[in-house]
Amino acid sequence: MKKILKFHQFVKIERGPVNSCIYDLLKGNIYQVTNPLLDQFQAQKYDEIPGLVQSLKEAELVIRVEENDWIPIDLCINYEEPEIQSVILELEEGVDIEASLAALETGKLNIVKVHFFGNREVGTFFPGIPVSNLEKDFSFCEEISTVTGDFVDIQEKTYRFNKRYNNCWGTRIAITKDGSIRPCIYSHLVMGNISVDNTAETWNKADQYRRITKEKVEKCKDCEFKFACFDCREIARQKGGSLYSTNPTCKYDPYRGE
Description:
The protein has 258 residues and is an alpha/beta fold. It has seven helices and eleven strands. It has helices at residues 35-42, 50-58, 97-105, 139-145, 156-164, 200-210, 233-240, and strands at 3-7, 11-15, 19-24, 29-34, 62-66, 85-92, 109-117, 131-133, 172-175, 180-182, 192-193.
């Protein structure tokens, strides 16, 4: 039985209109290839694209297997969501911490880290949970949202998370000093207030914001890099006017591959 070339089992492919992006989730690397070349590879026309085949071999992105023995593995399926969501809790100086914790109990949230934007010592409220005292700096969000083409390692856990949740709002919840519950400490969106007893609507909104993935964002949904870069929805909302506006700090054009 003849042997054929196939992609490594830990590689996940994302297509854009022009190029495809091959994510090596085993090593955390990204390899970009034009769609016509990828089509030829998948059609097993290896003799027509020797350069691509050799480059894939050098990147250790292909293996040789017996024909019909290949079993593709998609690491991003059969992922069970936890009943309790793990989040970073962001608190503004002057917030009522005890009232905030009471409100959070109804949201079925597991606090794994606390960012306190002030100088007060609040660690006693969160035994066993890391607490960081920070200064507000929204410019940092714009900096890490700027797409330069240099991507850090793409780990399997991050990649799977970004397919299901927003890479920022999906990781946190914020409460400001007026009791407002927001997607993050920099957001102007208000989902509810800790003084309101009926919080079901609050957590429904929170879940909707958490699930604004790149599949729902203008331009990003067509980009082969959509699960590789950081995206701040608050910057896009403020500058683009919509929760689903394209990232204004991204200069990549997925329709031209430039």
